[in-house]
Give the backbone structure.
Amino acid sequence: MWLFFTIFTTAAWSFAELFYKKGARPEERYAHLKTGICVGFVMGAHALFTLLTQDVNYDPMNILHYFPVSFLYGLAMVLSYFGMRFVEESISDPIENTCGSICTLLCVIFLHEHVSTIAAISILCTLVGIIGLGILDNTGETDRKKKLGKKLAIIAFCMPISYAILDAIAELLDIIQLDLESTSLTNVTADNLELVANTSYELTWFIAAILMLAFLIIKKEKFGSVSYQKDKIFAACCETAGQMTYVFAMSGNGAIAAPIISSYCVFSVLLSRIFLKEKLTKRQYLFVFITIVGILILGLTEA
């Protein structure tokens, strides 16, 4: 079943990325926080539903036990939401999804897993792709500094890179936490481990959403109507649906599921081209292609 959950997660997050981008308006100063609020409240609602309908035997202390994983995932996502306001989805998503490659590298370093020559080549491809996109992002006709200014252009491009690194670390910790022998979660069994982990993650997001909403209220920033923020809300629903199945995918075979799920960037690029009408230069598409090839090769190699 872990393969089914992996595929579903990939599809759900592909559409989530599309609507995240649609809702990431450059002129909306706190768009990234408003997106985070939508995600937090949708996840909080699902966590409540889980606690009311499932025999989870949930210990609230697990919010703290799982907090390092939740925090890293959440921080990575908020940084991604910020970057989406200024960086094309066709560029940011492939970069962000190199997290699978980075996670594999971290597994080698910290879990002493073996990486084949082909896997090493795939990781090198993703690195070449990122460096190439980084160079093109600040040169010639694709110079983002001309549009945003030097400081904001650098910060914006660093967001998907930061996401990839933070998410990879979170994935590594998740592999450990979703192992019954090594997890620090309490009152867990083989049957409820994934639900406990996911509920902890969603409750953390809900708490964060309340804090972000309080910040907006203090700043006297209006959230906007439901119709105005519908893209953010729909993205949050897709995100939560994918998260529901993600923990099952990772617990089934995390080392394989992580790079496969990372390949959802292929579909995100296609959706961005079709629905968002994003157009890149030929050289940008070349490095996007190299990055995606690296991600896919890793997924196939690990499978």
Summary: The mean pLDDT is 89. Residues 230-262 form the longest helix (33 residues).
